[in-house]
Amino acid sequence: MDSTKGKGRSSYLDLLVAVLKEHEKSLDELVEKMEKLSEELSKATRKTDETKKEKALKTATTGPEEPETLIYLKVKIDRPIDEVIRILETLKE
Length: 93
Prior knowledge:
Elements: H1 2-62, H2 81-92
């Protein structure tokens, strides 16, 4: 009976070794993928940083973009509002 136990134990160990080898292969593949992803992420981060630096340099040399300006003007006139709106629309053009 000891030989039966030995064969069973040997078969179990063979199976364990085979499973662990496959597991190691899978882990190696995952590590390689993670390394590639890490490299791509580093490249993207560097590119983003360069773009931010370029924009900051452009802003520093040319100044910030001019925002649209809204001017509030209070005028007292004796004309109907429709006429005033038409006048303002023609001035916009």
